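User: Before I run my own analysis I want an independent prediction to cross-check against. Here's the chain; please return only the structure tokens and, at the end, one sentence I can use as a sanity check.
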Amino acid sequence: MGFLTYLINGLSLGSIYAIIALGYTMVYGIAKMLNFAHGDVIMIGSYAVFMTMANSGLPAVVSIIIAIVICTALGVIIEKIAYKPLRKATNLAVLITAIGVSYFLQNMALLIFGSNPIVFKSVINWKGITVAGLTISGITIITIVTCIIIMLVLTWFVKNTKPGQAMRAVSEDKDAASLMGINVNATISLTFAIGSGLAAIAGALYCSAYPTLTPYTGSMPGIKAFTAAVFGGIGSIPGALIGGLLLGVIEILGKAYISSQLSDAIVFIVLIIVLLVKPAGILGKTIHEKV
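Assistant: Structure tokens:
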């Protein structure tokens, strides 16, 4: 039973990483930029859920919807102010800007909410189920199911809707997409909006499973979700799912059977090994440049 419990907990944690990884993989796949401030959007979403639930007494579903709206707007603002001017800049310039945005969001949260940890009230009140002596918590079940639903809906959206087709076109060639009448700016903004909205859901689920909230809460999940996106093949939606789930399972099993102190190192070691074998990630495509 012990191994099954760890496996299920790993899938639950991995589902959160997968949802967060979507923000990285979609933005990179379409805008060819890495939004390293994405983890702090998760933190803002978590505070939004906490404040609306604890202070306003709103139901969890309403609080999450408000957080999604706030994070969606924040994602669009970040794209317009910080990233849009850098679309043709070097990767170093984008990285420096992302770090600056990250520090700004963290310090803003410190000024508003303070540095003291907050005990986060779970958005899931369901205790879960017991099957053959194995107890699966409600937050674990909801997290895994939510991840699957999000992946299915997002895959359908990208393949079967006009905005989704516009995203695919912009991902292939921005200039050609613009000549075909596609609004490239609006498409990239939509991508940031979707990724940031999903970050709010991930934040609520993560803080429900690990109920401590600080201005730095999103930093490590953000880094690990980026690792998951690279692991699965950055730019690939199914890759984000596979990378997130594998990363979560490896982390939990590493904590259980090797060392809780070394679990993060184990995750990154496995990533290095995978990238040495397949540099583009599990589902990533290697692009050969013609000279």
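Sanity check: The chain has eleven helices and four strands.
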